[in-house]
Amino acid sequence: MGELEKSGAGEPPGLRLMRIGPALTVTAAAAVVLLAGVIAGGLALLGVQGLKPEAQVSATTLFDLLKIAFAVVAGLGGLVALVVAYRRQKVAEAAQVLAEQSSQREATKLHNERFTTASGQLGHDSPAVRLAGAHALAGLADDAPTRELRQTCIDVLCAYLRMPYTPKPAKDAPEADRLAFAGLREVRHTIIRLITAHLRDNATVSWQGHDLDFTGVVFDGGDFSGAEFSGGMVTFRGAEFSSGGVAFSGAVFSGGIVDFGHAEFSGGVVTFSYAQFLNGGMVYLGAVFSSGSVAFSHAQFSGGEVSFIAAQFAGSAVGFNRAEFSGGTVAFSYARFSGGTVDFRDAQFSGGTVDFRDAQFFGGAVDFRCQYPGPLWEAPPMGIPDPVPPGVLEPAWWPHSGAVPGAVESKGTPDGPTAVKE
Question: What transmembrane ranges does the database entry give (predicted)?
Answer without folding.
Answer: 23-48, 68-86
